[in-house]
Amino acid sequence: MEIIDTIYNEIIGFLGISKAWEILQEGNYSAFKTFDGIVSLIYPIIPLLLILEFILGLIYKKPDTKVYKVNFLIYLFNRFVGRFIAIAMVTLCIGLFQKYAPFQTKMTWYWFIYGYIIWEFAHFLYHYWGHKVRLLWCLHSTHHAAENMNLSVTYAHFFLEAPYADTIRTTVCILLGVQPELLFLIMFVDGTYGAFIHVGENMIKDARFGPLNNFMLTPSHHRVHHAKNPLYMDTNFCNLLNIWDRVFGTYQEEKEEIKIEYGITREMDSGNFLNVYFGEFIALFKDIMKAPRIKDKLLYIVMPPGWSHTGNHKTSKVIRTAFLNKNYNVVEQIK
């Protein structure tokens, strides 16, 4: 019975309906008008959309079962290995850095806007470094391994990525005055939308969202981010507002004439859990071992993926620049 209860609780936890179910059992329906009640209704949206997306994939005969299977295994592994680490890091950063903030925000709409812009900047930093520092890419690559886009990709992360990400984001926000209560609200909104932007074409074919595409980061933008096409590589690092991508020159819209190819450039089996989860660490270790000098070994850890001690670099910047130089018409289109 204990095993059945554990499985039941994990299913309820995954679906995010525990709080709503508790309110329904108590019969206190007015609780749904409170903040906690509203949150309890929002939490299940992404898991339920994931289930619907998978069903639609089966109907359209595009199940991509190996992607769902591996991402589900990653979710289970992370539940047991790293479920409390990220929370601990957030708490630690708040305690360490809040006293150094020059001012403190309040729970008002204008401070919420300020806090969200700061959060997006912090998210940009974590995400950018996750693509530009080889060791950090080893943590982040698990999220990019899938060869198609669907909501299950939301759960595909190396267990140490969340602690690293939340350490960067929380530290920046706290030092710039975002008070913890406001920060947690922003985390909830951003986490919910950040899951939604992984919605696949089985559910939403054209995800540009009309005029919203001009200032929001839409699922279309995030599909570009997950692409390995030369034009699309290492672009669109933001999560909801694409302001910082525009500021730092990493903004890229989806082009109808360039079909998105998902995944990473390393040859791999996206249906193999070990390859998806540890493959980049193994590749990094091999590069370190073959480097002749200590300096080169250390550079492999901190330089971008594709950097080589031989000088034959295949970084995303090199590949994208070569593509743009070869396709001048594309350069003109993206200006």
TrEMBL record:
| MF terms in GO | glyceryl-ether monooxygenase activity; iron ion binding
InterPro entries in the cross-refs: Fatty_acid_hydroxylase, Sterol_desaturase/TMEM195
Query: Which Gene Ontology cellular-component terms appear in the entry?
Result: endomembrane system; membrane
Q: Membrane among the record's keywords?
A: yes
Cross-referenced Pfam families = FA_hydroxylase
- Topology within the bilayer: Multi-pass membrane protein
Predominant localisation class: membrane
**Which intervals hold domain Fatty acid hydroxylase?**
113-250
**In which compartments does the protein localize?**
Endomembrane system
Membrane-crossing ranges are 41-60, 72-97, 109-129
A GO BP annotation: membrane lipid metabolic process
Q: Superkingdom of the source?
A: Bacteria
Alphabetized UniProt keyword annotations: Lipid metabolism, Membrane, Oxidoreductase, Transmembrane, Transmembrane helix
Q: What is this protein called?
A: Fatty acid hydroxylase family protein
Origin organism of this chain? Flagellimonas aequoris
